[in-house]
Amino acid sequence: MNFLKFRKKMYKQPDPPSIETLSGSMSQQIVQIQDAFSHSEDLKHRQLSSGSQLFTLMYLESLIKDELIEANVIKPLRDADDVQPQDAVTALGVRQSSNLYDIVSALLEGYCVMLTDQAASALLIAAPQEQTRAIEEPKDEQIIKGPHEGFVESLHTNMYLLRRRIRSPKFKVRYFTIGRFTNTKVAMVYMETLAEPNIVEECVKRISAIDLDYMYSVTNMDEMIEEHPMSPFPQTIQTGRPDRAVSYLMEGKINVLVDGNPVVLVLPITFFSFYQSVDDYNHRWIIGSFFRFIRLIGFILAISLPAIYIAIVTYHSEVLPFGILYSIKVSLTYVPFPPLMEAITMQVILELLKEAAMRLPSPISQTIGIVGGLVIGTAVVEANLVSDTMIVVIGLTAIASFATPLNEFGTSLRILGFPTMLAAAMFGFFGIAVVLMIIFIHLCKIETMGVPFFAPFGPFHGREGGKDIFLRLPIWKNESDDRINGKLLSFLKRWKRT
Amino acid sequence: MNTTITRWQLFFVIIKTQIGIGLLSLPSEIQGSAKGDAWISVLVAGCAIQLLLLVYGGLMKRFPGDTLSQMTRRMFGNYAGLALNVICFVFFILIAAYACSLYVHLIRTWLLPLTPVWVLLLMIIATSVYLALENIRVIARFFVLASVLFVILILISLLTFTNEMHISNVLPIGQSGMMQVFQGSEKTFFSMLGFEVMLYFFPAVEKQPKGVLKIALLANGFVTLFYTYFVFICLISYSTNALAQVNEPVLFLFKGLAYQLLDRLDLIFLSLWIIPMTSTIVSYLALAGKSMTTGQIAYRRMVWISGLLVFLIGMYMALQENLDPFSKWLEYGYLMMIAALPLLIYLGAFLLKNKGKGGTA
Fold first, then answer.
1. How far is the CA of A120 from the CAs of A32, A97, A123, in angstroms?
2. Chain B partners within 8 Å of A458 (Cβ)
3. Contact B168, B22 (CB under 8 A)
4. Is A430 in contact with B127 (Cβ distance < 8 A)?
5. Which of A213, B131, B293, B298 has a C-alpha 20 to 30 A away from that of A126?
6. Which of chain A's residues have a Cβ under 8 Å away from the Cβ of B107?
7. Nearest-CA distance from A465 to chain B in Å?
8. B258/A438 Cβ within 8 A
């Protein structure tokens, strides 16, 4: 018992922000820093001399860029005679510190530390190595028309992608460091004049309150700040597209970036944001609106289509006129299973195929596509295990759920399809109505940071709120008053030059 | 109270509570007395309610920020007030249970003849409690959202105009005489219950009391017209004899419609109608909670208890062969409560004008 307690204590022990300072001679200082790093072997030190002075450079070899140290530190020091080292060093980020905690965290950020015999303080010189892949379009959020850039794993590059799109002094960044062991850098970005101050405050409060040993991903962050963990609906958007992220900033929302993740977290978000795609805005508004409308139909289909089918064939076959009923009944005649079984089996097979094909290299996943789609699909029908109509219904449902611009939401929808199917199999239309009611009540219930999730419908905001929901109206209709000098742009005033 | 609703949300809360199960069987019930003039009965009942709403308006002016339960306490003192509130609570539970039993009966007749009563009741009440537990704002949000259905229902109802219709069924207007029309409106009155939610929810309305009365009158006006419309369609679609024989004439209207892709529109209509019917029960559960408590935590507990009571009483009612004597008693008792009690408080407030204001009684 005691042993366990002790282990736990050991494990939980964070590095306390020590107020220890550097002291003693240079060699003592080196040992002090090495002690702080438990004598890790990638902490290198190197002696240097310039004129009469002796220096020691300390750095973590994996985190710094050799060329930078060579060019900015070693070479200038060699060339200089009797200059203060901070004047000789040509790096951009240079600062002095004697606080051991400060020095340790600087080393971890890719600084190199220069110790001298004279002073009990160290010079911290930035020479971080940034290995990042090239900026490319995120695979799960491709679009047809428009910019093809995507976030990468480096926080700096991601900030660059955002800043470059909004060149405004109102673009505000706040940094946090989260994770007692990982010390992950987190940036919260918003537009000072557009974001609601109390939402910003609430967000800062929640992020600052996070106390974790590690922070790996944006999803960790999401789980720490979301309000309704039991809800099937995601309440934040994770997007890998800078253009999308920026458009949310301009709506007064907050972006949270976590270092090491090629996605940003957007909050607070509403239901209908999941049905907006960047493509809508890059096409003519009629086309954009049309596609958005199709996607919203997809939402209803994904939740209720298999359920409606089950309800009709099990309980309410009188709803169908004789012609259609006949062809459905014929296809059902030799199927030994109840429709619910058929539907659930097919849904599970579909998810299995998806899971199997997703992570395989593409030549193998093609094989799975053929085996799954053609062989299982047709053979299952020919063997009379599943009816034709059910295949059509499940296929349609899957396509409808994949039509959401964000994959995560589509998966939630497919999961919600199961309770609906179950209710339909037990209670027919009544069951579907009740489950849909519960889903919509739930949508009305949840709020993120005080913003109702189902706005502008529950609560109904009428014309102002409903602008960008079903229809993707042209930008001169959409631009809100306060952005353009209090004047609403209109169709005629678009080109007005004053 | 922190959670406020807008005036338009109150509008939808009122209409969602008023429109419910009553409408489906209304035409055949009224026509028993008013015959072809049944639609006039609906209008008369609507007007009577408007008058009652004026009294409510007076109350709201007299006691701004108080719900009915707070008003009774203020007027009659703590003990008598509490007793009256308990009576209100009992009535709300009974009405909810009665509505539930009718609801279950309807579902069993039209959709699920073999499903046991308790399962249906449990589903209805569980859903209602799930919503009623929340604060008024969430309830209002859902009601507004669900009101989109009324548009769909009205659109579906337009399809019935392809049925054979005889306008002569309602002619000559005024054929059955004043007394018959009044008797008919008495019956209508009970299908239009639900406006009393105003007495409990108006303190939550933003910028009250300005315009709240107007919204309530408007809501009731809308409901009256909605009912008149459906009663009228039924009247011109069926002869008096046919109407006397069907229980849910509104549903029968749709039964005859057939299209290439869909048959039996009545089932679709009924499936959509499930949502207004459940909303009514949500409102009564919320009223039951509000009538006894003020705080949110106590309110939630009260809603749980009410849900349980409604379930038990609803079970009992649904298993009875004939509820008519009971429902008569219930309806008149309830009428007494929502008409006489506010009237009494209103008159009492006049008499005690000098003492009343701001006094905690």
1. 12, 9, 10
2. 141-142, 144-145
3. no
4. no
5. A213
6. 430
7. 14
8. no
Q: Is A430 on the interface with B (CB under 8 A)?
A: yes
Closest CB to A459: pick one of B115, B130, B144: B144
- DSSP for B208-249, please give it: TTTTHHHHHHHHHHHHHHHHHHHHHHHHHHS-HHHHHH-S-H
SS3 of B178-199: HHHHHHHHHHHHHHCCCCCHHH
Residue A285's identity, in one-letter code, is W
**Does residue A128 have a cis peptide bond before it, meaning omega lies within 30 degrees of 0?**
no
Would you state the pLDDT for residue B356? 47
Confidence (pTM): 0.86
Q: Which of B213, B289, B163 is nearest to B59 (CA)?
A: B213
At residue A481 the predicted structure's pLDDT band, cuts being 50, 70 and 90, is very low
Q: What does the pLDDT read at residue B361?
A: 39
> pLDDT per residue over A118-175, tens digit each?
777 888 888 888 888 888 888 888 888 888 889 999 898 999 999 999 998 989 999 9
Q: How confident is the model at residue B66 (pLDDT cuts 50, 70, 90)?
A: confident
Give the separation between CA A252 and CA A174, rounded to whole angstroms.
16
Distance from chain centroid for Cα B119: 24
Q: Name beta bridge partners: A254.
A: A267
Tell me chain B's radius of gyration from C-alpha atoms. Answer: 20
Query: pLDDT above 90 covers what percent of chain A?
Result: 13
CA distance A444 to chain B (A): 6
What is the amino acid identity at position B36?
G
Beta carbons of A112 and A73 less than 8 angstroms apart: yes
Cis peptide before A459 (omega within 30 of 0): yes
Look-up of token digits 């080292």: A85
Q: What ipTM describes this predicted complex?
A: 0.89
Question: Best residue in A439, A444, A470 to probe B by mutation, most B CBs within 10 Å?
Answer: A444
Choose among A164, A182, A147: nearest CA to A260.
A182
What are B269-308's pLDDT values in tens digits?
A: 888 889 989 999 999 999 888 888 777 888 888 889 999 9
- So what's the pLDDT on residue A138? 87
A345, containing H or E segment: helix A339-358
- For residue A187, list its beta bridge partners: A175, A257
Q: What is the DSSP letter of A335?
A: -
Q: Put the strands of the sheet holding A94-97 in their side by side order.
A: A43-50, A53-60, A111-116, A122-126, A94-97
| pLDDT digits 0-9 by tens, A370-397 | 887 778 878 888 888 888 888 889 889 9
| A·B CB contacts under 8 A | 93
Spatial CA neighbour of A210 closest among A200, A225, A198: A225
Please tell me if residue A440 touches chain B, with a CB cutoff of 8 Å.
Answer: yes
Closest Cα in chain A, distance from residue B274 (Å): 7
